[in-house]
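User: Let's play a game. I give you a shape written as tokens, and you guess the letters that built it. Ready? Here's round one.
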């Protein structure tokens, strides 16, 4: 009984602070989601980079862990995560033949730094999320969750620049060596 009551309170609070927002034409979402689902499910080789450099273009990061999936001659998925003084930022980029299709960003606040008004994610952590769907390197549809999330539809240039910067980093590493799985530590 107590667990049920606690869940209801948590769910109500999380929904209160959700403030889900959208931008653009939702019809584009399903077509891109079908492509990203296929990319996620498809087998590929993995490459890993751990860098102290600010490859995400964010301030005050201690370093960034990045992995990429390489399939059919292309990088198809790049996932990067880093910590700053407020918590953990993660971003996933999905690409089709070197063209950005989709990005998913999330930020999870440290318990001690979480805003009281923050939305709670599926882990119960104070957080925000943003999903951005692209065409010609511009956001055509976006969804955000959490009152502290960036505005839905903003950041086309920043997100696409970051995706292509990471893509160049992995292409450069791939030219250096091409084993099944590459693990590198660098100071980019």
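Assistant: Ready! My guess for every position:
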């Amino acid at each position: 009984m107590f667990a049920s009551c606690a869940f209801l309170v948590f769910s109500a609070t999380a929904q209160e602070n959700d403030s889900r927002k959208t931008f653009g034409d939702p019809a584009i979402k399903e077509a891109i989601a079908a492509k990203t689902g296929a990319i996620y499910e498809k087998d590929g080789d993995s490459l890993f980079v751990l860098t102290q450099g600010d490859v995400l273009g964010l301030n005050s990061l201690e370093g960034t862990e990045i992995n990429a999936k390489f399939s059919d001659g292309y990088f198809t998925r790049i996932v990067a995560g880093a910590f700053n003084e407020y918590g953990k930022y993660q971003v996933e980029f999905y690409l089709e033949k070197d063209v950005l299709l989709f990005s998913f960003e999330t930020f999870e606040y440290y318990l001690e730094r979480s805003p009281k008004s923050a939305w709670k994610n599926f882990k119960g952590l104070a957080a925000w999320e943003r999903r951005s769907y692209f065409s010609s390197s511009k956001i055509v549809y976006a969804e955000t969750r959490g009152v502290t999330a960036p505005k839905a539809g903003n950041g086309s240039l920043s997100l696409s620049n970051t995706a292509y910067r990471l893509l160049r980093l992995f292409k450069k590493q791939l030219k250096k060596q091409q084993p099944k799985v590459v693990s590198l530590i660098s100071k980019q």
